[in-house]
Structures are given as C-alpha cells and as structure tokens.
Amino acid sequence: MASWLSLLVGCLLLLNLPGNDCEKAKGQDIEEENTFLDLHATKFYVDKSSFIRDFVLMDTKIVLLTLPPKWGKTVAVDMLRAFLELNVDENGERVYWSPDMLTDPNLKISRHQAMPNIFVDPNLKISRHRTLITAHYKRHPVIHVSFHDVQGDTVESMLPSLTEAIARAFDHHRYMQPVLSRDAVGPDSVSSYNARYSLHIFEQIRNRTVDRETLKTSLYMLVEILNRKFGTVWILIDAYDHPIDIGQTQDLAEADAKMDYLRDLLQKTFKLRWHFHKALLSG
Ligand SMILES: *[C@@H]1O[C@H](CO)[C@@H](O)[C@H](O)[C@H]1NC(C)=O
C-alpha cells in the first residue's frame, strides 16, 4: 500500500493509491514515449487510474503531488497525459478517434494517439466513471514537461538541460508552427504580428538557441497559444523540484539566482489563470 501524499496549495489532502510500480518501461518511439501506456501493455501495471478522477475533480487549480523517488509519479503524469490530451495532426487540426485509424496508411498521428480508449477497460477503476470519461477523455490541450534531466547548480550551467526539457514540449506541439504561419499572414495586423513573433520564438526554442530571458517566458507563451487554439490548457510538470534539489554550490548568490530564475519561470507559466484549467506539479 503506497500512500500518495498530495500537498495542495493551501491545504493538505491524502490520496490513497495502492500498489508499487515496475521499473520504467521504455517505448521504442522516443518522442511519443509514455510510461503509462507501455506499462499498461505489460500487464504488470497496478491500477492507479482512480487518480485521474481525483485529479480532475480536485477543487484546486495547481496541485502539488509529492512522493518519494520511484513511487510512480512519472507513470501517474503519463497516465493523465494519455487520458486528457486531444489528438492533433501535423497541421494542427483535431483528430477524432475512429476504428479505421488503425489501418489507415496515411495516419498522421502517433501509434499511441491512435490506440483505442483503454480507460473503458473494466479492469481499470476509472472505467466506472463514464460521465467523466466522456467529458475529459482526449478533450484537452496538454503541456507536459519533465525537469527530470535538468542539471547544473547555476543558472548558466542549468540552461542547456532546461532548454532541452522545455524544447521537448515545443517539439511535441510542433503542429503549432503551421498554425502560426497561417496566422502570420492573416488580415488582422495585431494578430499577424503576434503570430510572427510567437513563430520566431517557437523556432528559437526548437533550435535550442533561445536566450535565458525568453526561455523563462516560453511555457507561458505555449500556454497562451494553445489556449487560443484549443481552449484551456492542462499543464503537467514532472520532477518540478529536481532542478532545485540538485547541485550544491558553495556560492549562495549563484544558488539564489538559480532559485529566482526557476521561481520566475513557474510564476510566469501560471500567471494567466484563465488560460489553463489545471496544473500538476509532481516532485
Ligand atoms: C532555426 O534553425 C534553422 C536551421 O538551422 C534556421 O534556418 C532558422 O533561421 C533558425 N530559426 C531561428 C529563429 O533561429
């Protein structure tokens, strides 16, 4: 019996989710890797799907999920992503699931995205909550970032790995580039200017050449453009506290600067509260 201690902003709530997790099962397809889907396929999966319901119904906008290492946070975050995230093709058009997808030779979404809904499997506890599944299954834009591989004890030394972590989220949403390109030539000069600007930043981030001040506002920008296209965003940040914990520099000024930088980045990401529906910070 694992006890999931979930510290909410302002209050404390206990979620009891049974079971242990297997070691992370790696997918073949690196970019669309999803530890939950891989693990579920192995049958070693211990059902924690009721966490989806707990998270969706939780009356808190930013949820901090704190657990000891190796207690399945990554799997929980990947499960939420597999459940919530809407399917989009490479041009930024929503794709709705159909049985023909599995045999469609021109399918423009990934293997994981094309899977039939596994959450209606009666072996999963979430399957009993049909209304919730109808309301939320693959209905939301999701930003997923993992700070798991971020390292460095100063802002400068942390930047390459932090850029990489954030750029992966942008790579995942690369279909927004054609969308922004179309908006950039639109009739409204303000929105076309904004689209050109966002497109430029998008490229810089995906090129891994973005400067530190722009990087700080990058997730904020991604929330904003996804919200404009698809409605309120769900934000999942895995290992959010990892960059804070690692690297013990003797230089207190450097340590403070790093903390300030990370705090600014998160504060900016969550600044426009009506642009995102809910956020999970796991650590
Ligand atoms: C990104 O990289 C490509 C290829 O190197 C380059 O053509 C493009 O100008 C770069 N974009 C930005 C905004 O840096």
From TrEMBL:
This is AAA-ATPase-like domain-containing protein. The keyword Hydrolase does not apply. InterPro entries: AAA-ATPase-like_dom (IPR018631). PANTHER family: AAA-ATPASE-LIKE DOMAIN-CONTAINING PROTEIN, CONSERVED PROTEIN, WITH A WEAK D-GALACTARATE DEHYDRATASE/ALTRONATE HYDROLASE DOMAIN. Residues 43-94, 123-283 form the AAA-ATPase-like domain. Keywords: Signal. Residues 1-22 form the signal peptide. The lineage of its organism: Eukaryota, Metazoa, Ecdysozoa, Arthropoda, Hexapoda.
